[in-house]
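Here is a typical protein record:
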Amino acid sequence: MRRRSLLVLLVLAATALLAGCLPPSNPGKPIQTLFVPAANGTPQRLLVILPGRGDDLEGLRRSGAAEAAQRAWPDADVVYAELTLGYYMEGRAPERLHAEVIQPARERGRYRQVWLAGASMGGMGVILYDRAHPGALDGLVLMAPYLGDGKIVREVADAGGVATWNAGPPQDLGADTFQREMWRHIQRWQRTPAEGQRVWLTYGRSDRLRRAMPVLAPALDPDHVRVVDGGHAWKVWSPALEGVLRAADADR
């Protein structure tokens, strides 16, 4: 019941704050994926991309994110994973993403790195996945992630930021706790530099979720925060993703 309450709240929050028509979703079936092979034919890395609220596989394909990623990383296979709202409503989105997409890729042993990227609702999904499976990924890319309602963001900001915010004792995820627990995980990035170093954030200066981003940013390496022109759309996120991946190689 706690899990169900959590996902009911996620639905309400997404409906209120994330735009776009809801695509069909059947969490009774395996997560649908679209595989885009490495441009150079010798894959060394895997990038899994999660959708925003209004995206299905066709919308992800049209986004151009795979092509943008492979301009930066020609040695990367890209997988679009149709982790739409229904999977979050089911209450097992991180676990299913791990079992159906991430872990099988790891077990094939062909990749030296596995990264996860998500936009808007998908960015929230990246955080929830990392909370459930810390250390399972080599890198995370948050593209204008949904970070909860204004109340929790203001609470963290008014406390002086994520470093000094008091999250209180850890709690099970539920309707009244999931946003606080998501921010607790962000605080873990700030307090554990080796974990935070894996995380990159990018968003548009005109993005409607931008007000939460400066509250998140101090938990990350300043060089891993990239603000670009534009709003809340793939035409902004896809080229921004290319820039992040180029910067990630330069950072190493």
About this structure: The mean pLDDT is 89.
